[in-house]
Amino acid sequence: MRATSFGLHALGLRATLTVDHAGLDRYLRDAFAHVGATVHAPEHRLEVCAGDRGAGIALDGRETWCGEAGDLAVELTRIVNRLVVWRSGTRLLVHAAVARLGGQMVVLPGPPDAGKSTLVTGLVRAGWEHLSDELAPVDPGTAEIAPYPRAIGLEGEARFLFPELRPEVEAAVDPYLARRWLVAPSAVGRVATAGGPATLLVFPRHEPRAETRLEWIRPAHALQELVTNTVNLGAHGRPGFRTLARVVRGARCARLVSGDLARAVDEVTGAAR
Amino acid sequence: MPPVEPRVATGVLRIAPRACWEELGGEVVVYDELEGACVVLNETGARFWMRLDGRRTTADIACELGEQFGVAGDLVADDLAALADQLVALRLIEAASGGPIDRDGLEQP
Predict the structure, then answer these.
(1) CA distance, residue B5 to nearest chain A CA (Å)
(2) ipTM for the whole predicted complex goes beyond 0.90
(3) Between 20 and 30 A from A131 (CA), which of A137, A145, A242, B2?
(4) pTM, rounded to two decimals
(5) Region for A92 from its dihedrals, namely left if φ exceeds 0, alpha if ψ lies in -120 to 50, beta otherwise
(6) Pairing of strands A180-183, A104-109
(7) Under 8 Å CB-to-CB from B97, ≥6 apart: which residues?
(8) Per-residue model confidence as pLDDT tens digits over A167-194
(9) Which ranges of A111-190 would DSSP assign to H, the alpha helix?
(10) Nearest to B22 among A218, A223, A228 (CB)
(11) Inter-chain touch B29–A223, beta carbons under 8 Å
C-alpha cells in the first residue's frame, strides 16, 4: 500500500510519522491523536514498516529498530520520548504521570515499572483529568506543569485491569498489541488542555500483593526523589534544581506503596481533598 | 605504616562551588551539579551546612551547636567531624582556600 503520514507535535518535538500499513496507521493515528498536528517542516521523520515477519522503525532515514510486531509500541514510544527529551528546550522533564481533580494536580514521579501509567489510568477512570502518563514538563519560569497527552502505554497487569481499553483494531494489527496497548487518553476519560502548579507529589511503587498505603514524607526527601526522576536535570544544572525545589515547596508530598489499584486511587483521591 | 592523611574536615571549610542546595522544612538538600548526585542533611546537618562560611572550623561550629542544644561541644564535635568527612569525600565541601561560596557557586571576597 501507499504509506500515509501524520504529524507529531509535542513540547518541542515537530515530527512526522509515516506508516506503510493502513490498519496500523489508523491504530497509531488514534493513539497519538492528542499530540497529532499538521507539522510543516518537521525536524524529524519517523517511518514504521510493517512486514510479514515483524516490524521496523527508521528515524530520519536510518533504520533504528527492527524486531517483533509486539515490540513495536514499546520501541516507538521509547523513540518518541527520546526525541521529546532532546527537543524539550528550556523545560525540565520529570519522569512522571500527571492528573488533575478540580484545583488539585497530582504528579506521580517514578522509574519504569513503578506503576505510573496504571495509576494515572485508574485516576482518570475515577474522574480525574489526564495530563500525562510518562513525562511531566516543568516550566522553569513558573514551575508549572504542562500537559503531555501522548498515547498511554498499558502492558502487563494493566491490561487485565482495564480490558475495556483494548484498542479496536483490525485482525492484521492484533500482533502489534501483544506486549503493550497504546491508548488515546480521551479513550480513558477527560483530557486536560492546560497545565498548572503541582499541589500533590506522590511517589508510587507498585508491589504486587502489598498492603496499599500512602505516607507523607518530608519535603527534602521529596526533592531528592524528584531530582532522581528528572531526566534532563544535567542540562539545566543549578537553575533546574531550584525550579524543582519550587515545585516541592508548592506541594504536599507522599510515598505510595500500591498493591491494589482501587485502593491506591482512593488513597490519592483522599490525599487530594 | 601508611602515611597519615591530614583530616581536611577539621580545618576551616566552605561549601564547594559544585554544590547547590535548598533548605526545606529545616533540612537541606544538596545537589552536586557535576555528578548529578543528591544528599539530604537532617536538621543538625542542615545547621552545620548553613555555618560553612569559609571562616569557622568544624570545632567552632560544634561549639555553637552545642550551646544551641545545651550540650558540650565535644559531644557534637565527633558527629560533625564524621559528617564533614563524608561531605569532603563527596566533594560537596572543601578546605577554605578563599572566601565563602554563595548560592550561585561564586566565591565571595
Answers:
(1) 32
(2) no
(3) A242
(4) 0.91
(5) beta
(6) unpaired
(7) none
(8) 999 999 999 999 999 999 999 999 999 9
(9) 116-125, 157-161, 185-188
(10) A223
(11) yes
